[in-house]
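Quarterly update, task 2.4: uridine-diphosphate-N-acetylglucosamine-bound model.
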Amino acid sequence: MEKLVIEGGRPLRGTVQVSGAKNAALPILAATLLTDGTCELHNVPALRDVATMIRILRALGVRVQQSNSTVSVDPRGYAGVEASYKLVSTMRASFCVLGPLLAKHRKARVSLPGGCVIGPRPVDLHLKGLRALGASITIESGYVVAEAKELRGAHVFLGGAYGSSVLATANVMMAATLARGTTVIENAACEPEVSDLADCLIAMGAKIHGHGTPRLEILGVRELAGVTHSVIPDRIEAGTYLAAAAMTRGALTVVGARAEHLGAVVDKLREAGVDITVVNGSQIRVRGRRALRPVGVTTLPYPGFPTDMQAQMMALMCVTKGISVITEKIYPDRFMHVAELNRMGAQVMLEGASAIVKGVQTLSSAPVMASDLRASAALVLAGLAAHGTTEVSRVYHLDRGYEHLEEKLVTLGASIRREKED
Ligand code: UD1
C-alpha cells in the first residue's frame, strides 16, 4: 500500500486543468452495452474506478481500448450477462450495468454491491424501477437476477428516504431506452452526470426528454448505435481545487470546469468570504483570504450542495474562525473523516447527521488514514494547510477519483510525494 507525504503550509498558486467526470464516465461506459456499434469516448479520466468498469466490460466480452483520455469500446457481439461480486464489491457504480444488460439481453446477473464505509447503500430504487418496466427480479446467492420477456414503458416514482438516486435514475433510464413504449421517471436525479449520460444516449439514438429536471420521459427505440461523446468535466474535482486554494490561502485558476455545475459550491465558498470570479463559464479564479467566515452547509441532491464536497468543505471550516454547522442529508453516516481531522487538531463534534465545527487557527500534522474517496481528499487538503509533515495512508481511495492528484498539486507549488507504506 502507498501513502502520501505532505509538507504543509504552502499556498497553492497557478492554473489547474480539470479532468473528465468520473461519475459521468462510469454510467456512460455501461451505456455502451446497449449499442450495436463502436463507441469512442473522450475526456475519460484515467482512474481506478474507470479501470474497474473497463474490466467489467471486458469480462462481458466487450473489446475496449484505452489511450490517454480516449476509450474505444466495441460491444458488437458481446454475450456476457454477469457482473461478478469480485468486481462489483470494489465499486458500487458497477451496479449500473444491470439496466443495460437487462435491456439488451432480457437477462442479467449482477452482484449486489453491499454497504460501504459511508453507510448502508440500498439498491431498492434501482429494482423498483426495473420491476416497473416488467422485469422479474430475484436475489440469488448475493446476486440480483433480472429477467424479462420484454421491457415495457411505465410510469415510475424514483424517490427514497433521501430523495432521488443518481445511479437508480441512470439504470432505469438506460433500460427504458430499449423498452417498448414510453417511460416516465418522476423524481429523477437532476445531477449533471445524469444529463451527460442522457446526452450520450440521445447521440446513440435514444429518445429522452426532460433530463436535468425531475421528470424524465423516455420513448423506447428498437436499437442504439455507436457514438462519439466527450465526458463533462468533473465538478467535484474542480470544487476540491477551489477548496484547496481557499484553505491554503492561495490563488488558483481552475480551467475546464463548468461553473454552472458548481453553483451551490461557489455560493457557499463566497458566503465564507472566498474570492471567486467566474471568467467565462469554464474558468474559475479563486483567491483564499486570510479571514474567512463560518457557514452552515446542508448537503442535498443537485442543485443543492453535493455530498461529495462535504468532507472538503469541512476541512476548510476546520481552519475558519467561528462555528460552522455541516448537515449531511444524503448519507447521514458519512463522517469518517471527522476523527482523522480531529487527530490533526480540528475541533469537530458530531450531533446526529450534523457536524459542529469550531474553527482553529492552524491544523497540526499527523499520520492519518483515508477511509473513502472524498474523506481522503479532505485529509489531503488538511495536510496542505497544516504545519509540518502529514502522512495520508491508504491512498488508493484517492486513485479512484482524482486523476494525477500529486502531479497537479506539485505544479501548484505543493510539497507532496507518494511513498510505500511501511
Ligand atoms: C452517486 C455518486 C456518488 C454520490 C451520490 C450522491 C456515482 C458513481 N456515484 O452515487 O459519488 O455521493 O450519487 O450524490 O455517480 N438510495 C436508496 N435506494 C436506492 C438508491 C439510493 O435509498 O436504491 C439512497 C442512498 O442510500 C442515498 C441516496 O439515496 O442515501 C442517494 O444515493 P444515490 O444518488 O443513489 O447515490 P449513488 O447513485 O450510489
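Highlight for this quarter: The pocket of uridine-diphosphate-N-acetylglucosamine is lined by residues 23, 26, 92-93, 121-126, 160-162, 165-168, 189, 193, 307-308, 330-331 (CB under 6 Å).
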